[in-house]
Amino acid sequence: MSKVQKLGYSSCAALAALLLLPWILVYKRVPTLRWIKSRRVERQILRLSHLPPEILVEIMKHIEWSDVLSLRRCCRTLHSVSKDREVWLSLLRRYYDTVIPRPFFLSKPLELCSGDDLEARVVQWWTGWEGLRPTVQTFTTDANMSDNWGPLCPLPGDQFFLYKGTDGSIFYCNPGQPDAPMHLLVPSPYPSNYSVEVCVAVDVLGTQGIDGAPTLSSDWSFEHRLFPPAFRLAVCRYARRTGSIEIWEIRPEVEGGAIGYSSHLLKSFSDKVRPTCCSLLGDHVAYHSSSASATRIVDWTAVADEGPVLGVNIALSSPFYILLLPHRRILVHSSYIYLVDWKLCHQSESSPTSRIRPQWQSTERFRKPHPYSIPFYIDNSIRLIWYRLQSRALTGVIISNDLDVAVSDSIAFAQLAECSVPVAHDELWFDYRKGLCVFRKMQRAHLLCYKWPGDSLPEPSFSEIAFPQDTYTIYVDKAHARSRVVMFIYKRPCKTAFFG
Asked: Which PROSITE patterns does the UniProt record give (predicted)?
């Protein structure tokens, strides 16, 4: 089809969509008027169904996802067209970066996603907790590796998760498969009889082509942001009074629809690290340094072999959460939230005297975030969802990505919902627009949907459901066609239960 033809189809489709939209709205949202205009609607639909399929596809590209689903119920022709891959790819492109923030990972490369795959991902994001079913499926991971523990965090795509071995080795596994095998991703530098503490960090912001955030490639296209062809992983270990930091490049390998991962070591160096939490962004890694009693930021590309570790030490010694931000800023959570602009600080050899203090501190304390929490990016701002303790409110943390805005003016808060939360931090999970709190002893869960200031999202909602009692870390399966709660059960071998 020529460009002129495409332009003509698109223009006609847009006009047809505008003419048809009021009838869709009447049919879908005003049940009491349906009997009045049902015949007129039927005539409009009949005329519409006689249009060429390519025109119908263009029409559906110009309406909302919910209206596409409404048209699907009208006749076989519209049902078939509503499943066209181009329809849902167009909707995803339209919503992405305007309503849906980055990252919005797919479980496989975009070119391998069918129309059903894209529809499921878009609809699941918009529909909140609708369709959550009170059914439970439980899977056990590789029984031959019963000493493994985790997950530590999800890999981009939310299909595979990282687990650790006793000796500090890192494995990846798809816990949604029965008897899912563990695959070695990162070997340990320690002997097999060592008991090694580990924390890891995926450079999520570095996969999204964000201004001021260094990336692996200058070409981070729409497709690459949805399924990164490569990303970096920081692994911090501690055993017998020795610590090590490794930076790895991870690449997904797709063969016949199956996905695996390969790793390549970029840098390894030693430091007295306590692996409680860490962060990685571009050329810099941040972690808790026990020798300096501080949060240390190191340019890992500049660490000389066998040389001293030079870095910037932030005067915060017990961080719960660290996030390196674009433009050489860093957020540290240690009961309170702290923000630091460290780009003008000089690197010095590890010493407790070479510390700088945060330039901004919150006035209220915040709950320790979920271990799998990631930042979101939209409207030139980094966003996090945390629980404010004094206000007892779910709070959106908005950090401006404008380099010209001073640190003290760059952070704002938005109350998303008032709610009570359980004691354990791994019993509550909050995504960009929905979350849940599990009250284990009561065997109940609270399901929340919320919206950010200025967003055109559905109105906030709250519901309560019965929930299984066990000891687990909760998560939500974003790779599934409908909302499904994941429970990583604290047993060996590792078990995973899916509720929904």
From this structure: FBOX
Is 151 a member of any domain? no
- State how far the Cα of 323 lies from the Cα of 126, in Å rounded to an integer: 27
**Structural domain of 104:** 49-126
What predicted TM-score, i.e. pTM, was given to this entire model? 0.89
Domain boundary among 337, 369, 401: 369
* Edge-first strand listing for the sheet containing 495-499: 136-140, 495-499, 485-489, 472-476
Q: Which of 268-272, 361-365, 461-465 has the highest mean pLDDT?
A: 361-365
> 67 φ, ψ to 5°?
-70, -30
311 shares its domain with 395: no
- Using DSSP, state whether 88 is helix, strand or coil: helix
What pLDDT is attached to residue 426? Answer: 66
Q: Tell me the backbone φ, ψ of residue 72, rounded to 5 degrees.
A: -60, -30
Instruction: Give the chain's domain count.
Output: 3
| Sequence-ordered list of residues with C-beta below 8 angstroms from that of 35, at least 6 positions apart, any chain | none
CA distance 490 to 320: 21
Task: Check residue 302 and give its pLDDT.
Answer: 92
Is residue 79 within 8 Å of residue 72, measured between CB atoms?
Answer: yes
pLDDT recorded at residue 226: 96
